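Take a record.
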Amino acid sequence: MTDRGLTSRQVALLVAISVIGIALRCAAIDRSYWFDELATLNTIDVPDWTTVVQITSRDNQPPLYNSAAYAWSHFFGFSEIALRSLSIVFGLLALFTPWLARTSLSRTERLLCFTILCLMPLPIRYAQEARNYSVLFLLSSACLFCYYEMLKAKSRRLQILFHASLIMLAFSHLFGLLLAVSFLA
């Protein structure tokens, strides 16, 4: 069997770990908002997007998450489940970032990274909060695996994805800005 394909045992393991990862992220999504989430809610419950950006800038936070949450809340509402589901989406997307390193990691290494990402407590917690931590985790993970793959395979597509993720990372969280600068250094 080639390194690109997965065996039936690995597919079953991947599905089982995925179900566990999804279940852990959805387990406590309907609890009441906590103080920081209320700050997010107050930031995005405004009449227009420019107000979201103005409030976010006064809070010294980059605007990416609040802008996405503003758009998300206009489609799905402001309930705890609706607003936190955006973070769940970001958290679930982050689980699959090891597959960006197609040639630099073996399939066993990708499965191991996936398993670790599925079961790590902080990303699970971040996916349950209406805050910008899940998008920070997604973008930093995408940057890491794209960078790792770019060292081995000189793919133009990966370079574009890496740089786009890097720019969005700088606009996701103040720590994302620091991480983006460290990638460039």
In short: The first helix runs from residue 8 to 26. The chain is about 70% helix and 0% strand.
